[in-house]
Amino acid sequence: MKLTLSRPSATRLALFAVASALAICAGAAVAANKTQVLKRVALTEPDAGEFANFGQWREVGEFIDHMVNDNGFDRAALESTLRQVRYVETAIQLMKPAPPGRPKNWQAYRARFVEPVRINAGVAFWDRNADALARAQEQFGVPAEIIVGIIGVETVYGRNTGNFRVMDAITTLAFSYPDTPTRDARMAYFRKELENTLLYAREAGIDPFSLLGSYAGAIGWPQFMPGSIRKFAVDFDGDGRIDLRNSQVDAIGSVANFLREHGWTAGEPTAFPVSVTQENKDWTSFLGQGLEAKFNLTELKAAGVLPAVDLPSDLKYGLVDLQNGTEVTEYWLGTNNFFAITQYNRSFFYAMSVIDLGRAVRSARPR
Fold first, then answer.
1. Which residues are marked as active site?
2. In the 8-state DSSP scheme, what is residue 56?
3. CATH of domain 13-102+162-218
4. What span, in angstroms and rounded, lies between the C-alpha atoms of 170 and 173?
């Protein structure tokens, strides 16, 4: 008979204070993108976690049954593995929504990513991997600057890949996600990622506890979740294995493949600046229409969207609003490729910072 144990309390107050301070420093960026920015902050000293005896949690028992029955895991071995998992309070705290009240601020968010340290590191990364980036662009149709932008925003080119044990972080979130409106859906997501972690470790022949990553369980230079590794990662350096933790070339190919599989179209642009009329506010109906380019230029113009430059008339667009706190909101028309980037991170701020960082790195490289 399995007993359901109460969850361990937050005993590492000092680390929680550090996490809170980081949330405050992130300011508008956190408000704009929940906790995604903190994922990229150098939380290099995660707490060691508390023993929670996950094996005696009822929901964990049900998960073990699923893994044994549907994936052929040995019950005793899996129970032994899960007994080694630690509960990570820091992951719980960092998953909580930012406090309400601070307005979103695109320019503040952008300044965190399009700055000299990342630009200089991006130039070095591009120079070091020019051949692989060119090959990825040729094979997958994704420009080098977009790949460079994503890896720079995610981990500052491998500097901040995370030191949390992925098994600890994902198991904690799978069974003890904080009390939020999306709690059930998020726990279901992380339980699927725990399944993917164990399957990936088995397929790769590695110890699942050797995997280190962010407090959400994202791994390596491009911060792929285990499910994305299994589905989208590629052996781009040709050594017979996929290694996003140590192979920059695998990371490059995997990012490009991810974008292609999520709808990237070779040769198409990403976004164009626009203004909106105050007299005719029909354009507001085009906001909040999902992460998809589905409107034609004629209907957008008729609603009061005014492009700053001539745009291709044969493409579909989505209206993107980049709020700037108390300052004027920026508006853009995002193409199919802009929204492909949002499949990596469901944020307009994120997608635009990837585009801007990649462009800045490209401009900074010697001609």
1. 154
2. G
3. 1.10.8.350
4. 5
Q: Which residue has the higher pLDDT, 112 or 18?
A: 112
Q: Where are the domains of the chain?
A: 13-102+162-218
Transcribe 258-307 into DSSP letters: HHHHTT--TT---EEEEEE-SS--GGGGGTT--S---B-HHHHHHTTEEE
CA distance 260 to 240: 22
pLDDT over 50 at 43, yes or no: no
Q: Name the DSSP class of 224.
A: B
H-assigned helices in 114-182: 116-128, 130-140, 144-155, 166-176
Over residues 287-321, the pLDDT tens digits come to 999 999 999 999 999 999 999 999 999 999 999 99
Please, where are the H alpha helices in the chain? 13-26, 28-33, 36-40, 58-71, 75-83, 89-95, 106-113, 116-128, 130-140, 144-155, 166-176, 183-204, 226-232, 248-261, 297-302, 336-342, 348-364
The burial class, CB within 10 Å (0-12 / 13-18 / 19+), for 320 is buried
77 token code pair: 């071995």
- In this prediction, residue 57 has a pLDDT band, given cuts at 50, 70 and 90, of confident
